[in-house]
Amino acid sequence: MSFWEKYVFSTDHKVIGLQYMFTGLFMAAIGGFFVYVFRMQLAFPGISVPGYGEVTPLAYNSLVTNHGTIMIFWFAMPVLIAAFGNILIPLMIGCDDMVFPRINRLSFQIFLLSAIILIASFFVPNGGFGGAWTSYPPLSANAEYNATPLGAPMWLIAVALEFVAFLLGGINFITTLMNARAPGMTMYRIPIVLWMIVIASILFMCSVGPLIAGAVMLLFDQTLGTSFYNPAGGGDPLLWQHLFWFFGHPEVYVVLLPAMGIVAEIMATMARKKLFGYKTILYSVIATGILSFVVWAHHQFIAGIDPRMANLFTVTTLLISVPIAELCFVYIATLYGGSITFNTPMLWALSFMVEFLIGGITGIFLGASGVDIFFHDTYFVVAHFHYTFVPIAIIGFYAGITYWFPKIFGKMLSDRLGKIHFWGTIIPFNFIFIPLFLLGAAGQHRRIWDFSNYSDLATPEFFNLRVIATVSLIVMISFQFVFLFNFIKSLRSKEKAPKNPWDANTLEWTADSPPPHGNWPELPEKVYRGPYEFSHPDRESDFWPQDEPGPDPDDPDYKSGYSPDSDIESSSTKA
Amino acid sequence: MSQAPIATSRSASGIPTARLAVWWVLASEIVIFGGLIMCYLMFRLHHESWAYEAEATKTAAGAFNTFVLLTSSLFVVLAHNAAEKKDTVKAVRYIWYTIFGGFVFMAVKAYEYTSEISHGYTMFKSVFWSFYYLATGLHGFHVVCGMFIMWMISRDVKKGKNLHRVEAIGIYWHFVDVVWIFLFPLLYIAK
Amino acid sequence: MSNSEEHHGHSAKHYVKIYWILLAMLGVSIVGPEIGIKWLTLITAFGIALVKAWMVCAYFMHLNIEKKIAWYTLAATLLLLLVFFTGVAPDVMKPEGQNWKSLYHEQTREEWDAEYDAAHHGDDHGDDHGDGGH
User: Fold this and answer.
1) For residue C76, which residues of chain B lie inside 8 Å, CB to CB?
2) How many Å is the maximal CA-CA distance in chain B?
3) Is residue A475 within 8 Å of A428, Cβ to Cβ?
4) What residues contact residue B140 under an 8 Å CB cut-off, 6+ apart?
5) Backbone angles phi and psi of A87, in degrees to 5
6) A7 assigned to some structural domain
7) β-pair partners for A543
8) Is the pLDDT of residue A242 over 80?
9) Spatial separation of the C-alpha atoms in residues B70 and B101, rounded to whole Å
10) Which of A38, A118, A322, A339 pairs as cysteine with A158 (C-beta 3.0–4.6 A)?
11) Does residue A1 form part of some domain?
């Protein structure tokens, strides 16, 4: 096979997954560069940023808009859902590929095209779109307001294409999980990460529809001059906000769920303990998914929406923290009493819980409409959603890649470098966003190019906080090179990774590392039990692979060799 | 690489893979068209003048097009019926009847657009007309895509390959029909 | 009516029968507005559209003999649209607010009639926005 066939136009799910991953990481590097530029401007207004130059107000708008867009649509989604979904789904359910390999390839190609259009939009006259990633009309619809007549429609087309790519990919994921499972892989034996990825795909698919129609409407408003969102012509600008957030809020859970799934896999394996309450997790996730469709207007509390609806959406927003809290408790219960190995993937998984919790708890402040009137559009909001999205996208990605690296690339990552990278990322991360919480609570507004024009925000104390955040950011970015170095060094090392370095149960660890095209010479014949049978008292070895012939301890007829009193594992699963 | 993976032939859910995928495609299409129709309804219900605007749409043309789509739906289900009995000649014939139905539909639509635009009912006259062109245009786009896919499938069917795809495209075509069944009263009848 | 044929697939005759029922309903929905009673028009237009859509889904798409999960999936998306409508309608369907007023001028019946006559008698079109030349 030629290079092109093998790596560019391949229909192999693992290659497509890697294509998604590397494209996503490349886009993340761009998004990371953008944040470096505008954070420099905020901490040292008017400075000529090394590697960029002076930041004009117009460029500032474009940078923040595209930082947000890239990090969510071109980094979090492709890496967490598309990359891990593509690599893991066929391997974990024991089949040779996705059910529609060519549609899978098409989905990546459309995604790549969308990324190219987005990057191209930075270089057109007046630069990339500057109307914020939420793209509210009239700011986004009128070129004289957003000052980016070419960037705006290109941004919109890129986003719409990206949606199409993920619709195609999502349908592939859902169909594959529903139909292509190995014999014996029943509903409750599917690894939880796959449930999460597929439920996320369903959430995406169901929520994005109205926005696709809405995006076409906005495109017509921008380019042709219709009045869908123009009140003077009989339209309504609030309609876009509703369309956007009807998608935008489920989108948070679309990226959250795969990350939580990755964390669950790692926790069970590294704590050598059965995942506590598999069904509880599954039902909590489904409840989260359903609730995520009825919370969207909490983004619009001060947009002039009906106050009665604001009350309703406050209640639903507070409600959705219940299933998410349930998930956190279940994860903690999984760790409780386990024999935990503190290696790099586990550190990432544990830090996900801690950092995401901070994001989740501050979200409850913002979900209450009364408090939100004060906090709306301040840096408190910025810090809040970065405390959710950074754990989701960055920590979730590192957790996943450090855990599955041996399977994907057939080499082991260095644990020592991994830990240096971990601490070098986590500590500065908190130093970036805790100051932003303080600034936001003090009233610092988002989307301001230069705070020195606001006397109450331009005090030296405030600037110190901004400088702390910016310097921490630069430290955090520099530590990513440790990962890059580790990545390249491990890839070049001679030592091959074993098939199952973590002694995990799921099916992907029975394939070669890395698995060839087709994954197994002979597909796994039958799945005998759930994926998390660790430290089972009836067994010598502390893990019990899913495909090893034998009984299923979850089976009601299963006869334990132990007395029921001492058998904590099986009693906990009955709950 | 030209061979389909084993994954495609599995059917753990009891629904054949192609059909299952089409159901999910339809689910995503329902929210696209549905979102658009919901937005239209919200405006329509509180803009009195949209009732007058709707009077300029041609009910007869819309009704004829409904008839055309219903007929083509019948043809495509007959094609599926023939494909199930491995009667490829008949299946191809019915697929082509369906494609022809699509052509007639688009021709009538083109006539309507021309006549409306020449009377000044362009996309910019009011948001009603913006919605009218967007909804019928999006629907027309789906008709054209369906015709194109049917043409590709008919070439396979002629060779006796991939007969199960006739059912898949049939389901899609019925969905396009159902969307029109709702657009017709929304845009042409309710005045 | 499908139960007897469930295991053999549907016959061509059956499809043609459904087709005639659909056409008859189409006829009713066209004639409906001619009677001129508003609530009756709503029923003949949208009630019949629902029945027609249901028949196409059940008998042409074969949802009646498909696994239940397909029904549930499609029905769930419809439910979602209802949620969307309920959440958005209170805002979008509100003609005024406390801190803003709408500059939009809604055409009255007379204005519209005058414009309609102008459009259908002269060659010149009656566009009132001035940008209809696109």
Assistant:
1) 27
2) 59
3) yes
4) B105, B106, B109
5) -70, -40
6) no
7) A534
8) yes
9) 9
10) A118
11) no
Who among C88, C91, C103 is closest to A231 (CB)?
C103
Which helix (H) or strand (E) segment holds residue A53: the answer is: strand A53-54
Q: How far apart are CA B97 and CA A119, in angstroms?
A: 45
Both structure tokens of A512: 């070669």
| Contact yes or no for A179 and B11 at CB 8 A | yes
CA–CA distance from A238 to each of A134, A220, A296 (Å)? 12, 17, 13
CB atoms closer than 10 angstroms to residue C66 = 18
Q: Residue C101: left (phi > 0), alpha (psi -120 to 50), or beta?
A: beta
- Cβ pair C90:A309 closer than 8 A: yes
Distance from CA of A229 to the nearest CA of B (A): 9
Q: Is A122 helix (H, G, I), strand (E, B) or coil?
A: coil
DSSP string spanning chain C? --GGGTTT---HHHHHHHHHHHHHHHHHHHHHHHH--HHHHHIIIIIHHHHHHHHIIIIIS-GGGS-HHHHHHHHHHHHHHHHHHHHHHHHHT----SS------PPPHHHHHHHHHHHHHSSS---SSS-TT-
CB distance from A305 to chain C under 8 Å? yes
- C19 contacts in B (CB within 8 Å)? 70-71, 73-74
Output the CATH code of domain B15-44+59-189: 1.20.120.80
Show the domain range for A285: 12-574
Q: Are A482 and A417 in contact (CB under 8 A)?
A: yes
A549, exposed or middle or buried, with CB in 10 Å at 0-12, 13-18, 19+?
exposed
In chain A, residues 9-68 whose CB comes closer than 8 Å to chain B: 11
Residue B69 pairs in a beta bridge with none
Count Cβ atoms below 10 Å from residue A503 Cβ, excluding itself: 14
List of residues 6+ apart from B53 with CB closer than 8 A: B121, B125, B126, B128, B129, C112
Domain spans, chain C = 3-90
Tell me phi and psi for residue A322, to 5 degrees: -65, -55
Neighbours of chain B (3+ CB pairs under 8 A): A, C
pLDDT at position C127, please?
42
pLDDT of residue C37: 82
Residues of C with CB under 8 A from a CB of A: 76-77, 80, 83-84, 87-88, 90-92, 94, 97, 99-100, 102-104, 106, 129, 131, 134
Query: Does the beta-carbon distance from C81 to B55 stay under 8 Å?
Result: no
Whether B31 sits inside 8 A of A90 (CB atoms) is no
Closest residue of chain C to B22, computed from CA coordinates? C70
- Please count the structural domains in chain A: 1
Q: What percent of chain C has pLDDT over 70?
A: 82
Confidence category of residue A567, pLDDT binned at 50, 70, 90: very low
Is residue C46 scored above 60 in pLDDT?
A: yes
Copy the structure tokens of residue C60.
């042409």
Interchain CB contact of A307 with C (< 8 Å): no
Residue A5 maps to a domain = no
Give, for A216, the enclosing helix (H) or strand (E): helix A192-223
Mean pLDDT for chain A?
A: 92
Is a pLDDT exceeding 70 seen at residue C5?
no
Q: Which one-letter DSSP state was computed for residue A301?
A: T
Domain harbouring A447, CATH code: 1.20.210.10
Q: How far is A511 from chain B (nearest CA, A)?
A: 16
Query: Residue A122 carries which side chain, given as an amino acid letter?
Result: F
Is A186 within 8 Å of A94 (Cβ atoms)?
no
- Which residue type occupies A459? T
Residue-wise DSSP of B8-46:
HH--TTSS-HHHHHHHHHHHHHHHHHHHHHHHHHHHHHH
Scan for tokens 């029968």, then name that residue: C17
- Helix or strand run (H / E) with residue B102: helix B88-118
Q: Is the pLDDT of residue B28 over 90?
A: yes
C55-77: pLDDT as tens digits? 999 999 999 889 999 999 999 99
